Amino acid sequence: MQAYIPLKEKYEKDVVPAMIKEFGYKNRLEVPRVEKVVLNMGIGEATRTADLIDTHGKELAEIAGQRPVVTRARKSISNFKIRQGMPVGLKVTLRGQKMYNFLYKLISIALPKLRDFRGVDQDSFDGRGNYALGLPEQLVFPEMTPDKVKRLQGLDVIIVTNAKTDEESRALLKYLGMPFKR
Q: How far apart are CA 137 and CA 18, in angstroms?
């Protein structure tokens, strides 16, 4: 059995040398790194039910280990019954050790718990080295117990790197342990 190595140490010991070898960087500081992870939970029902913001806010705080920020509508859209300034979602930005802890939890615990999981899509990069991933429900995280969750809600995970290309970013995430589809 492999011993638990925190993701930051794995990055320093394993990922940096592998990336230098693969891409021919001249300096360790040229190697791309994960800068932040943004968790976003869009809650369309919150415009009609105010306590959903509090409920999902507590759940997102448990998952991330940090209080979320309420995102509000920028403009009014009559077809969706949304007025400017209404709460429409929650967002958390993780950096530093909390970011590495969350990535470890996502890669090794949450993603394998997904039903019929065969890996994450390799094509979800934005052209600038950032990766976006959608999770269908919050129950895949170990902090969530099915008894306490009143309403299933999906969330988006955006991994922001300082890689210049998608190829560099894909290699970085692969070396960190992200299970891509073959």
A: 34
Q: Which two tokens stand for residue 140?
A: 């895949």
Separation in Å, CA 167 to CA 20, 131, 163: 14, 11, 9
Q: What are phi and psi of 143, to 5 degrees?
A: -75, -20
Give the start-to-end residue ranges of the domains of the chain: 7-42+56-70+89-176
- DSSP structure class, residue 174: H
Structural contact between residues 99 and 34, judged by C-beta atoms closer than 8 angstroms: yes
pTM for the full predicted model = 0.86
Single-letter amino acid code for the residue at 16: V
Provide the residue-wise pLDDT of the chain in tens; the chain has 182 residues: 344 568 888 888 999 999 999 999 999 999 999 999 999 988 876 566 777 788 888 888 888 889 999 888 778 777 777 778 777 888 999 998 889 988 988 888 888 888 888 888 888 888 888 999 988 887 788 787 777 777 788 889 999 999 999 999 999 999 998 888 87
CATH superfamily assigned to domain 7-42+56-70+89-176: Ribosomal protein L5 (3.30.1440.10)
